[in-house]
Amino acid sequence: MSFRARHLLGIEHLAPDEITTLIDLADTYATDNRAGKTHRDVLAGMTQINMFFENSTRTQASFELAGKKLGADVMNMAMQSSSVKKGETLIDTALTLNAMHPDLLVVRHPSSGAVDLLAQKVNGAVLNAGDGRHEHPTQALLDGLTIRRAKGRLHRLSIAICGDIAHSRVARSNIMLLGKMENRVRLIAPPTLMPAGISEFGVEVFDDMEKGLQDVDVVMMLRLQKERMDGGFIPSEREYFHRYGLDAAKLARAKPDAIVMHPGPMNRGVEIDGTIADDINRSVIQTQVEMGVAVRMAAMDLLARNLRAARAEAAA
Amino acid sequence: MTTLHFINARLIDPVALTDDVGTLTVQDGLITALNADAPAGATVIDCDGACLAPGIIDIGVKVSEPGERHKESFRSAGRAAAAGGVTTIVTRPDTAPPIDTPEALEFVRRRAEVEACVNVLPMATLTKGREGREMTEIGFLLDAGAVAFTDGDHVVTDTKVLSRALTYARSLGALVIGHPQDPGLSAGACVTSGKFASLRGLPAVSPMAERMGLDRDIALLEMTGARYHADQITTARALPALERAKRNGLKITAGISIHHLTLNDMDVADYRTFFKLTPPLRSEDDRQAVINALAEGLIDIVCSMHTPQDEESKRLPFEHAAAGAVGLQTLLPAALRLVHAGQITLPRLFRALTLNPAHLLNLPAGRLTPGTPADLVLFDPDAPFVLDRATLLSKSKNTPFDGARLQGRVIGTWVGGTCVAGTHVQGGFDA
């Protein structure tokens, strides 16, 4: 096994062999989950706290289910309605929780870098469930697993990421993961939603969606947040759908067997045509959700192993 | 008063741009002679080949009095300045409350007189409450001792307000210090746009915002004829505009903080908030461009932009952390990095640290000319050390140079002929 990280804060710090190790393990968990085979001993006796400083239903449920399937004691804390409102700083919140000795801390926060900051102050293993516009590593890993299952490999593929790249942590983590696994990554977005200096990341940049989708193996759509739709970054929802929404005509540019992905939740008719999202021959959106649980199980399993090893070493 | 006679000193002369070994004599708080014999009864100080230069005049120091004395007081700032070879601090008015009335300025002057061991020259705000709506009592404030007028990093967005304030200031010969930054483009940003900002997912501002701010201010100078100093010019794109304005005879000068000369945006690394500054750190290309501009004299003044922040305001997610870094004690050793890298000579560096700020503020100090105040710093430019922020004398320890390898140790600092840092004994030093 080669997975050396103490925390899972981002894809940036993972080596390709660590990514492969994690996805391999997630693959077996995915198979076992389908077969109804349980693994309640893996995290037995361990405490997992989900701290979400930003609203999330899907990711939090996925982490909760993953923890429970592995036998952890899972606790959810809705941070946006708790002591944060009373003026407690992030570090104090972290120290308070740390005193309760959680083994695994799953954290989502609206500020980039906040999860890194918190990880410096706690003894357990921290999993980044999304920090600002920075990273969302488990999403990229579940996307990687989904692609590998659909395409038979996770290298030498041509993959287009389309939509609000500038504000997307999913895009950043995926750009890094897909690049590390030696794929060709194309970014497609209106220039107002494309971050500065992004071409230096080893990606191809397009503002014409039809050109960008030419002959790709995978089309990865991103969610466009409501607050960006009204004149600030793009003129209107309907103009966006016309130019950047995934419909049958645009998808026809991609390879005939290209798959369509979306991290959810979808805005049907804004970034993706409903019929494409529901096309079982093209869309793997539901598989992504399924792989999400398996990837989070694998990530917590591997981090728990490293945590136990570190504790055994400290005790020795 | 005693008479001091420095011998075996490398005299760093920012006027003649020379760096020669010689002697310097101080009597009654003034420099009285260069390369003369020791007067009878003088205390002879053997500098042993160390550099003797005018004390640094640091424009834009934030002393957190009134309002946040736990971050920095006049006493602590004075001690830090003395230890860093800074003999005059020109204080920023962006305190709480801001220094926008003669009464508030009077408070600053009295506190400084009682507490600080170096010269303190206060600045006042250009508009009341730094709100950019009404100009302050520029005339009364000048009479009370304000040396310049600035709203700090609050840009006066209303050009009518700014043009009137500049026109009024011109009639009194008052110096206005601006912060060139387009407020719309830079709103909400905490890093400079580019690869690093995109990698870290932080809200970013284009370096063009500085050029736009400068262009606007230059147009208003052309209109009003006021005396204007840009607090920090940190980007390559702003330099041609600055050069043109100077060539056209406008009364404009420009400064830069030592941090923008020695660090770049990549130094923020894993969200290190001690590297969060206003304006944000720039790209390496920009850094090289401003170093060249400094060496050529296009950028006139190097300052520390000393901004004390307590631990709590820095221990936050990067976006929410307070901006600014302390710099009084690290200004000289950090600036010497440029000298050791061969990018600027010592006399030219001291022109930007001492002579140019003295010219801007019409001060007699800042040079080694007989008849001027004996504000001096004696330092070993080569002595290496690793900075431990806990050893800084500022109340706040928010330095980006914690753990950095630096060269240049201050041996002694004199203000008006009085030793304020370093202890010397006959014929040698025990620093």
Characterization of the model:
The complex is a heterodimer of chains A (316) and B (431). By secondary structure, chain A is an alpha/beta fold. Chain A has two domains: 7-135 and 289-304, Aspartate/ornithine carbamoyltransferase (Rossmann fold, 3-Layer(aba) Sandwich), CATH 3.40.50; 137-284, 3-Layer(aba) Sandwich (Rossmann fold). Helices cover 40% and strands 14% of the residues of chain A. Chain A is built from eleven helices and nine strands. In chain A, the strands form two sheets. In chain A, strands 7-6-5-8-9 form a five-stranded parallel beta sheet. In chain A, strands 2-1-3-4 form a four-stranded parallel beta sheet. In chain A, helix 5 crosses helix 6 (169-180) and helix 5 crosses helix 11 (285-315). The longest helix of chain A is centred in the last third of the chain and has 31 residues, at 285-315. Chain A is globular and about 60 Å long. Chain B has a single domain (55-361), classed as TIM Barrel, CATH 3.20.20. Chain B has 13 helices and 20 strands. In chain B, strands 1, 2, 3, 4, 5, 16, 17 and 18 form an eight-stranded mixed beta sheet that branches. Chain B has a five-stranded parallel beta sheet with strand order 9-10-13-14-15. A three-stranded parallel beta sheet of chain B has the order 6-7-8. The longest helix of chain B is centred in the middle third of the chain and has 17 residues, at 208-224. Chain B is globular. Residues 425-431 of chain B have low confidence and may be disordered. The A-B interface holds A 12, 89-91, 109, 111-114, 116-117, 131-135, 169, 172, 195-198, 200-201 and B 193-202, 204, 206, 270-271, 312, 315-320.
